[in-house]
Design a protein that fits this description.
five-stranded parallel sheet, 2 domains, seven-stranded parallel sheet, alpha/beta, Rossmann fold
Length: about 425
């Protein structure tokens, strides 16, 4: 079967699909991954066909967005940009995305796997191509009474309020995609259809959505409609023969396990301040550190601190004493899989949601909101994560659960059903 996976956003929005795609390829399918142009190397390393999308996940001077599922447009800084500005930038991103998805789909496919970011436009492509589609989501974005929308904070509004807020969020997404969907349908030769009507038709048909996170973190809500499943995490592809760079291996062997500090695709343009803050926090906590540069460009010098670039968390985290991170969905899961305590520093979007989930498991300290981050407070939380054994015990217990899950195999089973 020819499968086209469509994902757009930052590194964490794309990397899990490389592992999922590689698993499907090993099962005998031809798999292509459509993603922003900047991830061509990442996709090529996983052995998948790459179909570039003309969107910039880092944002651009012409009003682009960072491409995250919620349309956050400030590069994750959380600097208080106006909501109207964010919506305009998200709409501009979606406009470019529509044409890119159509071009990526032009070579054809037998099945579309759509991320939460690409599904609203991907539905129209599947209709025009006459092929089935499946949702492959990294966040629980569908309305439920069990928790509020994942990008709207962690304070519950009660069962009715949570579900109502989720429904309002869906209508906002419909409006954001309305213009791009209208133009896309015209390009594809489809009759006019409102975006909300397209979504509701999928819901009435119990359109299937497979969620790539562990039910340990988010059990399937009891009030979800049929067709919505939680299958387990999809891990980014790592070559079987991958080894940590020699300078990283040498540093790890030179002393006790260090503490990881990294903010992934968040906090762009804030690298100098964050680097100094991280260095001071590590010094105060009395621990060694591995600092990942990320999009913020963190750089820390010192005998007890090593700055690294892109290093797979699957290989690095098991060697850490704890992990300070932005609580993105993938990084949160990677820390749990490694059995490593987390110090979550959520920046924006769905990160407060995942930070709270980690803390609820007892595998993380209480979240430290990015806007409240200081060296003193970070050092205090690092000391707790490293010195209080309960955090590691609960993280290791979670690692045992995640180690028994196989989210990619669950997806492969559903794909096989589609091919019968």
């Amino acid at each position: 079967m020819k499968i086209l996976v469509m994902a757009a956003g930052s590194h964490g929005d794309v990397a899990p699909y490389t592992g999922l795609g590689a698993h499907l390829r090993a099962a005998g399918h031809e798999v292509a991954l459509a993603a922003p142009e900047t991830f061509g190397g990442l996709v090529a390393e996983s052995g998948l066909d790459f179909r570039p999308l003309p969107v910039d996940p880092r944002g651009s001077a012409d009003g682009g967005t960072d491409g995250t599922a919620d349309g956050t447009a400030d590069g994750g800084r959380g600097d208080g940009a106006g909501g109207g500005s964010l919506l305009r930038k998200a709409a501009a991103f979606i406009d470019r995305l529509g044409d890119g998805l159509a071009d990526a789909a032009a070579p054809g496919a037998d099945l579309l796997l759509l991320s939460a970011t690409t599904a609203p436009l991907g539905w129209h492509l599947a209709e025009a191509m006459g092929v089935p589609s499946l949702g492959a989501y990294l966040q629980p974005t569908l309305p439920t009474g069990e928790f509020p929308p994942v990008v709207g904070g962690t304070r519950s509004l009660g069962r009715w309020g949570n579900r109502a807020a989720g429904a309002v969020g869906q209508r906002v997404v419909d409006r954001l995609h309305a213009g791009a969907a209208r133009r896309l349908r015209g390009r594809l030769g489809l009759p006019p259809l409102a975006q909300g009507a397209q979504r509701r038709a999928r819901e009435r048909g119990d359109w299937r959505v497979l969620h790539g996170f562990s039910p340990l973190l988010v059990p399937r809500p009891a009030d979800w409609r049929g067709g919505l499943e939680v299958v387990g995490t999809w891990w980014p592809y790592v070559a079987p023969d991958y080894r940590l760079p020699p300078e990283v291996e040498d540093f790890l062997r030179a002393g006790p396990p260090p503490v990881f500090v990294g903010f992934g695709s968040m906090a762009g343009g804030d690298g100098e301040r964050l680097g100094a803050l991280a260095a001071e926090a590590l010094r105060r906590a009395g621990v060694r550190g591995v600092v990942q540069a990320g999009w913020a460009g963190l750089a820390v010098d010192g005998d007890d601190v090593l700055t690294v670039g892109e290093v797979p968390h699957a290989r690095l985290f098991p060697r850490m004493a704890a992990a300070v991170h932005h609580a993105g969905a993938g990084t949160s899961a990677a820390a749990l899989r490694a059995g490593v305590p987390s110090v979550p520093v959520p920046v924006a979007a769905d990160q407060p949601f995942w930070a709270a989930r980690l803390a609820r498991l007892g595998a993380a300290t209480g979240p430290v909101p990015f806007k409240e981050l200081t060296a003193e407070r970070l050092a205090e939380e690092i000391r707790r994560a490293v010195r209080e054994p309960a955090f590691r015990a609960r993280a290791e217990a979670a690692a045992g659960v995640l180690g028994r899950e196989d989210g990619a195999a669950r997806v492969a089973g559903v794909v096989a059903e589609q091919g019968r």
